[in-house]
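Provenance and format

Records in this collection were gathered into a single text stream. Each protein contributes a sequence line and a token line. The two records reproduced below are adjacent in the stream.
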Amino acid sequence: QVYLVESGGGLVQPGGSLRLSCTSPGMTLNYYGVGWFRQAPGKEREGVSCLESSDGEKFYADSVKGRFTLSRDNAENAVYLQMNNLKPEDTGVYYCAAAVSALCYMTPRQYDYWGQGIQVTVSS
């Protein structure tokens, strides 16, 4: 069963931008805490950003502060991760996740539902 679907990844040059989308065919995302994670080859999955339900608190990893922006569009049932000034170290598979608790976590184990992930590659 597909719970979450990511889109918007791809190949971009350093300094470029991408917008990732997280949608759900069966869940109303506004009721969930939603997080974005990424995993580079050979590394653990790390938290990038998260948002509490009903546009509560947001958190960003230090490595992306000032460059990434997380937002929610309830009409589209989507959560977006706008990524600007991308760097090669941002390369990895990006996952969105949803927490039934409606809270925001920067560690993966508290999330209940996950997407399949989407590749982001930053390279010249």
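Adjacent record:
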Amino acid sequence: EVQLVESGGGLVQAGGSLRLSCAASGFTFDDYAIGWFRQAPGKEREGVSCITNDDGSTYYADSVKGRFTISSDNAKNTVYLQMNSLKPEDTAVYYCAADPFLYGLGPGYEYWGQGTQVTVSS
């Protein structure tokens, strides 16, 4: 059974940092791309960043480029999203997703986690 479990969310002041984790199980980690997405209240889900676990290629949305860093620990089957210089507009539920064929920030990933709340206060 494929499982994606996010953790690391919380409340932080603007300018602060958080590191999200996405622990994966039930599939061959190296064969999948992992993406981070977020959804704020009243808004559509948007792609934040993604990484391919075979060669480590990464991609970022313009809104987080230079502030967020995605990384992968293949030995632990875990993908991280380091979020620095957080802004109130980063407040959202953050989800990780996995797919063996897709790469990028589109919504068509096959497997999704339950999400973790990130709240940035001003």
